[in-house]
Structure formats: C-alpha cells, structure tokens
Amino acid sequence: DISPLLKDPVAFRTLIDLLEDHVRASFPKIDFIAGLDSRGFLIGPPLAQRLGIGFVPIRKKGKLPGPTESVSYALEYGKAELEIQADAVEPGQKVVIVDDLLATGGTMCAACELLKRLKAEILECLVIIELKSLKGLEKLNSIPFYSLLQYD
What we know:
- The chain has 4 helices and 7 strands; from the N terminus they run ααβαββββαββ.
- The chain is of the alpha/beta class.
- It has one domain: Rossmann fold, CATH 3.40.50.2020.
- A 7-stranded mixed β-sheet has the order 3-4-2-1-5-6-7, sandwiched between helices.
- Helix 2 (9-26) crosses helix 3.
- It starts with a helix and ends with a strand.
C-alpha cells in the first residue's frame, strides 16, 4: 500500500527524487515514461516531468480513445486486458515502464508485450516495491528491472 507515501509530500518528493536519480544515471537517452493503470499514473507523470519527457498511459481495456493495441493476460483470479494507443510511441523510441508494485509479473509482462508490438525499445521496468517470493521477475525474461524496495 503506497497510500501513506502519497499523503506525505516530503516522502513522495523523495520517492520521485530517487527514481529520477536512478533513471538519469542509467539512461542518458530516454523518450517516454509509460505508466500502468492505475498507480503507475501517480508515479509516471511527475517522473516524466522531472526528466523533461512525455508520459504514455497503459490502461485497462476500453479506457483509451482512438485505435489501440490490446493484450490479454492471466491474473491470479482471472483474466484482464491492457491497451495502449496505437500511435503512443514510434518504432525505436526508448521507454521506461513504471508501476508501484511487481507481484506475479502478469501486468508488467503484458505492458512489455504492448510496447514490443509498437517496436519501442524497453530500457527498464521500474517499480517501488517488488514482492520477490511471487517471482514476477522471472516473467520479464531479459528485460532490465529495478525496484527500490524488495520484500521476501
């Protein structure tokens, strides 16, 4: 639960500072931050703003206007679909995907699939919290990954 972090302006600013420092140190060239519905929308825009780049939303099915790419994926309790606008990124553009949490990895893996379909270069998947015991990182295969906090 990141709600206490969001309520504390000093803590939230510190979070964005840490993420900004990591991204700047790791990637001298980046075109977009892509955020996952919905908590990635809370982290992604301020991070993108700090970096002077754009933000791309990856949303639950049926929420985006215009033509979209869609992918279905399995959840622990059923299935879900994510979408990205078909013109969100150009082939070869460099993207970091952000979310609050990596658990089983299904949502993050689906987001990676959408960006690959648009031929974006995924630089990294970036989260605040990783639940290591759920082994979500294994689903990401060789895509670089970074988490600020890890819990077993």
